[in-house]
Design brief:
With 190 residues, this protein is mainly alpha-helical. 66% of the residues lie in helices and 0% in strands. Helix 1 crosses helix 10. It is globular and about 50 Å long. The two termini are 23 Å apart.
Length: 190
């Protein structure tokens, strides 16, 4: 399943305030989700990688790390990204804006070594986020930044927006656990 589909649903969900409409749209997303990744999609909607009771680590990337990753991914200086962030007030929107301006053509694209934007799938995104969360020890900071920069570099603008927001812990979807449960019940229970 393509991550772009989820990002597009996130964009639509963000604009809705009615719980009934949120539940309906979430149910529609679940109907379009492959069974192998439904658990990953549910966790992504909730802004986490796994249940809280597992004791697994959080992503562990703060605002400064995200600014470094965005700058690295799109070839900007950190100061430029920070200035844009101060003007816009949302790192997700900053990533969207900068990604929209990047053409993504490199020498690798001519020899088939560069993945086109929009080819991210849910499992790839989830696995990369897990790598970031579980990176520990010396040099883990740089590893987290490089992995995330690589991920958002491959992403379309809308995917980059929601990836940054997810890592930042600010998806802004307005969806609680009860809404997710209702949507799952409608989808799989009728």
């Amino acid at each position: 399943m393509k991550f772009k589909l989820i990002a597009e649903y996130f964009d639509r969900l963000e604009k809705i305030s009615s719980r009934i409409q949120l539940t309906s749209l979430l149910s529609d997303l679940f109907k379009n989700t492959e069974r192998e990744v439904i658990d990953k999609v549910v966790y992504l909607i909730q802004g986490r990688l796994w249940p809280d009771f597992t004791g697994m680590p959080e992503i562990g990337m703060g605002e400064k790390f995200l600014i470094k990753a965005i700058a690295m991914a799109y070839g900007n200086k950190e100061e430029e990204v920070e200035k844009l962030y101060k003007n816009i007030g949302d790192l997700g929107e900053v990533a969207y804006s900068l990604r929209s301006k990047v053409k993504g053509v490199s020498i690798l694209s001519f020899v088939g070594g560069n993945q086109e934007a929009g080819e991210l799938d849910v499992m790839e995104v989830y696995n990369e986020l897990v790598k970031i969360a579980t990176s520990t020890g010396e040099g883990s900071r740089d590893i987290k930044i490089r992995i995330f920069a690589g991920l958002i570099k491959k992403a379309t603008p809308i995917e980059a927006k929601y990836l940054v927001r997810f890592v930042e812990g600010r998806l802004r979807l307005g969806i609680g656990d009860a809404t997710v449960l209702d949507a799952l019940a409608i989808t799989f229970g009728g």
